[in-house]
Amino acid sequence: MPGTVVWFGHDLRLEDHAALSFAAEQDGPVVPLFVWAPEEYGGWAPGGAHRWWLRQSLEALDGSLREKGLRLIVRQGSSLDAIRDVLQATGADRVAWLTRYEPTLRQRDIGIRDALAGDGIRCHQFAGRLLHNPEEIRTTTDGPYHVFTPFWKKFRKQVEVGEPLNVPRLGKSRAPDSWPDADSLDDLGLTPQQQDGVDWAGGMREFWQPGEAGAHDRLARFLSVAHTYDEDRNRPDLRHTSELSPHLHWGEISPRTVWTRVNAWVTNGPTREAADSYLSEIAWREFSYHVLHAHPDTPTEPLKDKFEGFRWRTTPSDLEAWQRGRTGYPIVDAGMRQLWALGWMHNRVRMIVASFLTKDLLVPWQEGAKWFWDTLCGGDLANNTMGWQWSAGSGADAQPFFRIFNPVGQGERHDPEGAYVCSWIPELADLPTKWIHKPWEAPAEVLEAAGVTLGETYPEPIVDHAERRDLAMERYNEIR
Ligand SMILES: Cc1cc2nc3c(=O)[nH]c(=O)nc-3n(C[C@H](O)[C@H](O)[C@H](O)COP(=O)(O)OP(=O)(O)OC[C@H]3O[C@@H](n4cnc5c(N)ncnc54)[C@H](O)[C@@H]3O)c2cc1C
Questions:
Q1: Domain that holds residue 30
Q2: CA geometry: angle at 282 spanning 364 and 263, to 5°?
Q3: Same structural domain for residues 78 and 148?
Q4: What's the domain count of the chain?
Q5: What is the pTM of this model?
Q6: CATH code where residue 405 lies
Q7: Could you give the CA distance from residue 82 to residue 60 in angstroms, rounded to a whole number?
Q8: Which residues contact ligand 1 via a Cβ below 6 A?
Q9: Per residue in 255-309, pLDDT tens?
């Protein structure tokens, strides 16, 4: 009997899912499959926050499929073994999936495709994770782009973003005669263990709703506040960005759906500038994948070779102070605490904390990338690599190394009332706004009145920014 296994990965949705729609159009049953195979990610297995998210998202996908008369078969172990086993158990003769672009997964998929072809199984791959095919956008000399603006111009000229596909018609009649064995979600060990009675996932649970419905809710929320996205996107105190990154990472909503909804929204009043500004951020995601595809070693190696000789200094206590949000620089600490609590951080603050780690503390960007990978719900190999290499000055279209963010100036500019800092560092909440980004400069009586004792209730700055700026420039001049 013919039938199609739909192999889900980072595309945990029903809408605008070309592989699922294809399966629905073929004869025979549709068998949705997810394989938990962390060892196949080549050193970038989903981190702690990812795993928490994945567990909820798989549950949500299974729920949506059950409403359509199907279910999600979850397996752990080798992907190829699991696919072969499910094919055999159901008699299906095809496998369909959305193309993955992470270098290791891409190679794995090629191997699986070849092995299945050898078994006489037809494999069908579809686009859906990105809006462009990284091999199709090329410079005039037939190479990849390394600068965003010309990439974006070419993208707008060449890529036509079509309408998203509807959720396909399915139903009980599309289920196999009997469902193959599945592992239970509990067996995958995705839920973080409570440490010393602390519920690490509590903040994430409160803030997020993983799954396709949650992604659509986030988009709707964003469209109701985003009229000023172009002006306010740098204000971490306002929550005027879309907060869609984990949903996009897990593919609970497609970039095509986001793109078309934002375009449609413009006709309801908001300015073209606000929409274009947002679409260009979606295009940064495309650009990140474009660069990763052309330079698969960049998650660990600098794109600009000269940075191989940069003299970093990994001081474990500095790294730990940064990770725990105890550097004594309030905007940095607020960002790191937001990350720990929510598995997400505002983009402007990501840039500030990354500059602080790599330039004030001179800790290699790879350490920051690893920490983000473990703590972000939407840690994304392409975007994370782009963000860290951009911040360190070693990547594509990177911020020049000599632009070293001053954490006090950045805080005052982008969190002018200090509301963001106060929400994540309650121990500073009673300080007057004037001192909130530089408590060490506040007069003793002001600190006392606010209940702040530096070094006790909140740390002294662990480094002097001006001195560290000079040291960073010395190190940079060595490789220039
Ligand atoms: C050091 C550093 C690390 C980062 N790590 C990640 C990561 O692991 N995963 C991740 O998705 N983004 C990462 N980013 C990019 C960006 O910070 C986040 O995508 C953004 O903050 C997510 O919030 P949002 O969804 O509200 O963004 P919005 O402003 O609403 O943007 C919409 C979407 O566009 C994409 N986008 C926005 N900015 C960028 C960007 N600079 N580069 C690539 N795509 C972008 C994201 O998919 C985002 O969800 C990183 C940035 C830096 C500086």
A1: 1-129
A2: 165
A3: no
A4: 3
A5: 0.97
A6: 1.10.579.10
A7: 21
A8: 233, 241-245, 248-249, 281-282, 284-285, 288, 347, 350-351, 354, 372, 376, 378-380, 383-384, 386-388, 391
A9: 999 999 998 887 666 678 888 999 999 999 999 999 999 999 999 999 999 999 9
